[in-house]
Amino acid sequence: MITTIDILFFGFTFLLVLGIGMVAGRKESSSKDYFLGGRSLPWWGIAGSLFGTNISANHLVGMLGIGFSVGFAQSHYEFGSIPAIVLLAFVFLPLFRRKKFFTLSQFLQEKFGKETAKIYSAISLILITIQLTGALYIGARSFLPFLQNLGMSVTYTELVIWIAFTSTIYTWFGGLKSVVYTDVIQTFLILASGLVLAYLSITRPEVGGLLELFAKEESRMDGLSKMNLYLPPNHPTLPWTGALSGLFLLHTFYWNTNQYVVQRTLGGKSLREARYGILVGGLLKLTVPFFSILTGIAAYQIWSSLGETTNIAPDEAFSKLVVLVVPVGYGLIGVILAGLLGAIFSSIDSMLHSAATLFTIDFYKPLFEKKGGSLSDERQMKSGRIFLLLFSFLVTVFANVLIDPNSKKNFFIELSNQSSHFTPALLVVFLFGIFNVKINAKAICGTILLTPFLSLLSPYLYTNYAPDFIKLTFGEELNFLHRVFLIFHFAFFVLVIAAFLQYKENPKDNSLQGLIQFNPFNQNPKKQNQHFFLICLSLFAILFFLIIFLRVQCPNSKFLIAVFGFLLFILFSLILTYRKKSTKQTFISVFRKRDEWLYGILLGFTFFFYLWF
């Protein structure tokens, strides 16, 4: 199956990525260079790195598998991320950059004290460990069949070690610049491989093209179209109620308070450059459902016609589909393997580097300074590199010992489920920090540490104590997306009560200032703009959910509703942009210098897809 030209192309891209990774960071001479790329990253580097970091092998392989087993509803993981990306560009990032933070725990330390920052950093390292272990597993499992096809007697364990070792090498040498520039190359490889596989799958005779695929799914006799974005509220995997509640909260945490994602935006040349990078990264995200998830649906049609659907595990769908649909002798398998390699490396290197940053800046440096020493840039870089090696070794062991390489589960969903126990309370704390709500550090720390245990206990409480009408609506078992929504609100109300009690004890305390001091008639122009934006955003959110409800209730009018939603976003963004116009500016110049309208187009397309499918 794999020919010489495939091997040559794959080998060339592998050496190219490794070489650029080692060369890009050869001049890193300070901790600022190593951990933030000298704050000199261009917009295209940020866009490529955001996309490459996010679209790991978990996406390329895992999402195709879920498209095959569940359907297009998995697109909520992509479409739902766009509003969270916009929040990063306009709310979180400006604040983080203004303070010139290296890590997001520095933000929490400024707002709520050192203990809160330490807990965040520790939980972040736990989350990175979970994600990185999963990335090594899915990367090795998806790559293994191709190497075995070459006659190589490579085991899963050996492949995990090779992937970890290779990505560790150039990350160790180069720091953030190496990670970002290799991610840009890997982004092109991921897109190329995804598009090639999508085209070859959708044009197969068993599928008949894109329109025929839509028609076949719409006319399925069992009524279970895989093109339906809105699965019932009691669906065990992706209920639409969970996708628009708990999943959005997970998106907000991932894109705004996740160290290894936000770190590349902190390294941008300027806020404007970073925002353009985020914008392009968001546009690239919108392509994923159409070259990954849709390909999985096409794979279902292919194997249905062959009577093989019961013999295909979701995480094996990618490799078996490549073997089935890609013609031999044209180098296309080499292109797909290079894209798969890029998807594997682009997430692993980012997580390794961010883990080293968190350890060095948040643990090692404060400990060293506490003893009366001064940690030089050279010493910071050295400690980060040593931790990088140790951490890489640890997750390699976990990937080999803790995960079954023959699992039949949807590992992407499993990974989201396991990670989500830690995130709701952290997101609440960050939001309170953004709104300048001051709360006692003990209340903050207690809530963060308590909620994972409550989250683990909540399925048992739901099964045994939830009323029957709730179970009838949302299922016999508590879906993890609904759980995230409930735990988030538990943490929110606990901290609001803590802030209220603190305010009651000392009325002069401004603990509730961020929540209660909202005056839309404030005469300060800057405050007026902020309040106008918040009012519009609140009204828009209400209108958004009303339109979504209308779409679910009236599926036959979904295209007209989608067009209305798209135009609504465009109008909203044009109004916001025009309000930024000064008296001396022309209409054209304000749109040339502002980017709100561009983000409006991004949100418009996102909302259109939300309402159409």
Brief summary of the model shown:
This protein is an all-alpha fold and about 625 residues long. About 75% of the residues lie in helices and about 0% in strands. The chain starts with a helix and ends with a helix.
Walk me through what this model shows.
- With 613 residues, this protein is mostly helical.
- 75% of the residues lie in helices and 0% in strands.
- The protein has 29 helices and no strands.
- It has helices spanning 4-24, 31-36, 43-54, 57-69, 76-79, 81-98, 104-112, 114-149, 156-174, 176-202, 210-218, 240-243, 246-256, 259-266, 271-285, 288-306, 317-325, 332-370, 377-401, 411-419, 423-434, 441-465, 468-474, 480-505, 513-516, 525-553, 558-578, 587-593, 596-612.
- Helix 3 packs antiparallel against helix 14 (259-266).
- The longest helix has 39 residues, at 332-370.
- The protein starts with a helix and ends with a helix.
- The model is unreliable at 518-523 (pLDDT under 50).
First-to-last CA distance: 36 Å
Average pLDDT, rounded to a whole number, is 81
The number of helical segments is 29
SSE order: HHHHHHHHHHHHHHHHHHHHHHHHHHHHH
Count of DSSP E strands? 0
Radius of gyration using CA atoms only: 24 Å
Our estimate of the beta-strand percent is: under 5%
Principal-axes geometry comes out as globular
Q: Biggest sheet: strands, sense, closure? A: none
- Helix/strand-derived category reads mainly alpha
How helix-rich are the residues, as a percent range?
over 70%
- Spans with pLDDT under 50 lasting ≥5 residues? 518-523
